[in-house]
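Ticket reopened. Same input as before:
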Amino acid sequence: MIRDPKDLPRYNAAERANHWVTGICFILLALSGLAFFHPAFYPLVQLFGGGAWARIIHPYLGVILGIAFVVMFFRFWQLNLINDADREWLTRVGEMIEGNDHNMPEQGKYNAGQKMVFWSMAVCVSALVISGLLMWRAYFNFPVGIVRLAAVVHAAAATIMILVAIVHVYAAIWTKGTIRAMWYGTVTRAWAKQHHRAWYRQMTGK
Amino acid sequence: MTNHWVDIKNADLILVMGGNPAEAHPCGFKWAIEAKKTRKAKLVVVDPRFNRTASVADFYAPLRSGSDIAFLGGVINYLIANDKIHKDYVKAYTNASFLVDPGFKFSDGLFSGYNEEKRSYDKGSWSYQLDKDGYAKIDESWQDPNCVWQLMKAHYARYTPEMVAKVCGTPKESFLKVCEYIAETAAPNKTMTSLYALGWTEHSVGSQNIRCMAMIQLLLGNMGMAGGGINALRGHSNVQGITDFALYAQQLPGYLAAPTDADKDIKSFLEKKTTKALRPGQMNFYQNFPKWYVSLQKAWWGDAATKDNGFAFDYMPKLAGASDVLSIFDQMYQGKINGFLCQGFNPLASVANKKKVSDALAKLKYMVVMDPLATDTSEFWKPYGEFNEVDPAKIPTEVFRLPTSLFAETAGSFTNSGRVILWRWKAAEPPGDAKDDTEIMATLFLKLKEMYAKDGGAFAEPIQKLTWAYRIPNKPSPEELMMEYNGKALADVVDPKDATKVLVKAGDQLPSFAMLRDDGTTTCGNWIYCGVWSQAGNNSARRDNSDPSGLGQTLNWGFAWPVNRRILYNRASADPSGKPWDPKRTVLRWTGKVWGGNDIPDMRPDAAPEENVMPFIMNPEGVARLFARDLMAEGPFPEHYEPFETPLEANPMHPQNPKAKSNPAARVYKGDMEAFGNAKDFPYVATTYRLTEHFHFWTKQSLVNAIMQPEHFVEIGEELAKEKGIAAGDRVKVRSNRGFIKAVAVVTKRIKAFDIDGKKVHTVGIPIHFGFKGATKPGFITNTLTPFVGDANTQTPEYKAFLVNIEKA
Amino acid sequence: MALQSLDIKQRSATTTPAPQARQTMEIAKLIDVSACIGCKACQVACMEWNDVREEVGHNVGVYDNPTDLTENAWTVMRFTEVEENNKLEWLIRKDGCMHCSDPGCLKSCPAPGAIIQYSNGVVDFHQENCIGCGYCVTGCPFNVPRISKKDNKAYKCTLCSDRLAVNQAPACVKACPTGAIEFGSKEDMKDYAGKRIADLKERGYDKAGLYDPPGVGGTHVMYVLHHADRPGLYAGLPENPSISPLVSLWKGATKPLATFALGLAALGSLFHYVIKGPNEVAREIEEEIEKEDAS
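Engineering reply: fixed in the latest deploy. New output:
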């Protein structure tokens, strides 16, 4: 891909770093968490130096992710407020999945799908961090009833989080020209015009 | 124990009073549980506290600490009033029918002959009426007003259930319920076992507590029976052994009376100690006293003990006066003792009134502590903050500590509460420089002997001529010692009926004390242990637990003194005609020619029932004593006296007689009477006791025990706690007139306030075990609080009932 | 405490069955609370046999010490004073692992082989496989496992599996002076308990009974209780213990379902791509931009 000075800046360096800190933590958390979740995934602990290390590292990664996500949340939350166009986009999401975006309403920096990803991640991360802390035996010893509830919440939230992340990653892969926004911060004007026309207009004044 | 541990399983009723076996004897207590499981036995506990034993009991009744005789006297009254007596037994086997000297009186709490100044009795009138042959007169009809039965009946008629409730604080219904349980065992085929320990002995009326129960057991016909008896649960694993070997200085091994300064020669001494039968045809076993005594002299001084020198009677040390633990420490306190060999003993922690003991030790020139552990006593001079406030600069006592091996680090024997002598083998080497006690004592002895030989000295013979035939002179082996005290024949021992029949060959170990002779031809260091190491070998090492009796008699398991007999007075388990009272639990029966059954007969083996030889062979009467003659210090019948520190103004039995408030015959030293506290300043009854988790003052030094019970505590009832604003876990200060301790409060439902004649009396329970040395949290010594007064007969201190006050620390 | 001389019935975090050809006897430890005097000999025996030592603690106003189960105290006596109808009872219960037939700890454990159930019924922790997550604590209906602060491994009563493997009774059973702890086949223990219960009923404990809670499939440590109708009296022994529904949810259906969902999402994405192809910028728009740039 050729970088063009006229490409539109989508994320600055700090935002990208923030995203990747969160992303890396998430991947590691998902891998180690899955290892504890189902025996089928247990061999994943080898990535971390064994079961005990996976157990030790997991919650610290969770803390880092939590902090990174909070920062990211405050960077982006206003851009993710749902508006009427989003609601319409959501009613037509089936066309989008079909790959037919001709009739989709014009989108700002984020489309409604992305916004849904944002908010579901916000909810999941909150649930995961809180329930995770409740389960963190190295430091805390909460009443067993609460810990049991936390365990269920943690598992459920993690499942949703991973599902959302799959959607998030797939969407980035599926929509060509997207990933570079998180690599070096810019997207092509054509990409912006195609996928985020309102944002494109705002950026270019056209 | 008249019976033995395993025999508890044969009981129908287990009465625990004056003890807490689940707490202090958990291993032996298995037999109480066994009786419950297999015989449907009932377990009844009477105690100031609802204790661990009570937790598995069928019935619990509370009583104020120090009021046991009132309770037991009430039981006697109940049994007589309700005719719950094993009449045939009482008639045949007790002195109920004996006539007592008409001069014997009891009025207002005192028996005839009291001397207030000396605090003792002239016991002249405490005796039987004798006939011209010197035999006691009897009235088979029990009608004579001077017969024991009538006197006893009158004496205990005052102990009504109402009086019991008033003195003991036991609710009347609870008392009567206990009486009903007890009364059931008056049936010839029902037995009650009485389990007691220091909860009875550690009172100023300790011996009479036990006597009172002995009387009850006689009235019920439970002595000599399987599942019956009076069973003292001994504390230390070998305290029975040490008692058998002259724990008390006024006795020689085997409970032989020791001569005193007044005994000038062996002839008069033996005459004095040899009893005459008080009824015709009785065994009067003490007639053999000369055989036992002469054999002891021969064991100790061998060839130097000859007929001509009275078997070296002069070598035997003669007592000048009291030498019990309280008197020794009082003399030390008076500055009359220079040196103290403290062997396996931690008196700073275990003797009453720590301050007095500490002051006494500070008056010594030197003290040698022989112990496996660094005891509190060995550091009595060392400040441990408020736990032991002393000024070493003011204590001149030089202390030497000689480490000794622990029981598992040396071979030897233990004698358990059931009188069973069990050999034990060395399990480990002692650490460091620790040596066996015997080696230290032998080395010391040999050094003294050498010094006497070199330097001379007054009356060296007893030391120079002491028998010392050990293979390694400074290390007498436990085997050699046991063989020595078992005794051997110095010449052939022949049958007294047939001089041609040799019973024991010269040089052989003796099989039984029946072989002892008073002519110097036998040796025996402890007559009751004779037979433990016979020609057959070490009988205490036998480990055959086969039990054809089904009663747990196991006659081939170790060796029980005397002569391997497991149940004392077992002749009384059969009726006068020789048939067992309960054929299902036959201990002994007359086979037609000899006594047979499941035990060694406590009777001449061929004494046919028609000969009327009665079962209590050690008594010159041949029968058991409901009336104790002159053998107790404070009276022939137990009477309730208040503890020396009592919450009451007067003895409720004798409110008008201050002389009868506390034991009138108990010895009180100068200064100790003043150190008693009164109920105004110290309103609560304190009682001290042991916990399962610890053993005396040893195990506070052991990590595992310290983990189980880490810190000193006191127990109080919820009501008192509320009054004083004390919550469980608070630190409290407990004061008596002699000092204070601080500990953690355990607030419990298990200690209740007593209603004593309308007055509310609270109990404060104080475990011992803790001190300033050890793995447990540093603590105070409980005996800081206890009074320096003892039982009138044994001088065992009154650890179980005294007065304190308590407040939040 | 790894011990392969006992047959394994269940293994934590293992989805395939253990060898099942050999059938061994189910065992049980029976604690007769009515014969227990709270002497703590079992606690001492446990510490000594297993070579664990708790720290010397404090008295907190009760007889209990150590005051709770810890990684070094695998069994503790719990003393409760109960007073009803003017009758005082001092109930003393030996607390520790119940060795459930359906063990919540094993169900919760994520580490393969960290928790083992032997075919004799003993549930054992194999610390070398333990990762220290504490899920066993979360899963246990009796609040038994403890995580060591030193090594972050979970510890609890092993029922002396090492002794059982060489035909010795557990140390606590051996040490119990009153026979309040008996050990044998589960069947024999139930028979024996029946006799004890009959005896207790004769002594007026109408509600005496056996505590072998069916909610966890029965246990291999059972109690004879004088008040079997109210186990809660005994320092909060659970009335009707079972694995918490939350734990079942967490470790039950959700596991395969969620795994399936995740797989579906991943595969769905893949096939979506394969079927629909990438979502690329439309040629017209590219051209529009190129045109703009050219102009």
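The longest helix of chain C spans residues 254-276. Chain C has a mean pLDDT of 94. Please confirm and we'll close it.
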